[in-house]
Amino acid sequence: MMTNLFSVFDPSSSVTSLPMNWVSVIVGVGILPLCFWKGPSRGAVLYGRLEKGLNQEMGVLLGASRRTWAVTFLALFLLIVLNNSLGLLPYVFTASSHLVFTASLALPLWLGYFMKGWVKNTTHMLAHLVQQGTPGALMGFMVLIESVSSVIRPGTLAVRLAANMIAGHLLLTLLSGAISLASVTSMVAILVSQVALLVLEAAVAAIQAYVFAVLSTLYASEV
């Protein structure tokens, strides 16, 4: 029996006696050999088009001098969307619903390009702290605001992803718990609502991965 609503996010899922904790993080490795097939499947063609489109978009955001960084953010997108999608399956723990996972993705990336920017492009980074045309009386205040905005970026990335994944799973859990107490008519309405929420969660899984990767790309483009 579930004593706490948030216990659904505890990494304690298992099938028979086999622990399934964090399986969504590593299960994607089994998909990689598909690229070695003699003829590409429809999934491989779709993946190729997705990879090409995102690579071009991120390359434009990063600029010509940092275009090779797009591979890193593309891999980040694929990792997140894979974990978000696998978390919708039964008995699979959603790793991206925990700050431990999301912060471990956002913080090292932010530290990497943030330190690179201040070490190699110090003047450029200082120029970003004060917008062009800012009155002299407000320059100190603008420096403070921009500094705080830069420091909290990894936190906002991590919390946004985790909060969106938690919200949808909580709604599904609440609706599933109400089925046993509902009438036949209400039960049908709840089942239809759950199917609709599941479709919405599938869309959120892809959208949040895209937002995380694109925002990381935009932050990296400023250094």
TrEMBL record:
Q: Name one GO cellular component term.
A: proton-transporting ATP synthase complex
Give one Pfam hit by family name: ATP-synt_A
Provide the GO MF annotations for this entry.
Answer: proton-transporting ATP synthase activity, rotational mechanism
Q: Is Kinase a UniProt keyword of this protein?
A: no
Topology relative to the membrane, per the entry?
Answer: Multi-pass membrane protein
Q: Where in the cell is it found?
A: Membrane; Mitochondrion inner membrane
- Kindly list the residue ranges recorded as spanning the membrane: 20-37, 58-82, 88-113, 165-191, 198-220
Keywords, ordered alphabetically: ATP synthesis, CF(0), Hydrogen ion transport, Ion transport, Membrane, Mitochondrion, Transmembrane, Transmembrane helix, Transport
InterPro entries for the chain: ATP_synth_F0_asu, ATP_synth_F0_asu_AS, ATP_synth_F0_asu_bact/mt, F0_ATP_A_sf
Return the similarity comment. Belongs to the ATPase A chain family.
Q: What name does the UniProt record give this protein? A: ATP synthase subunit a
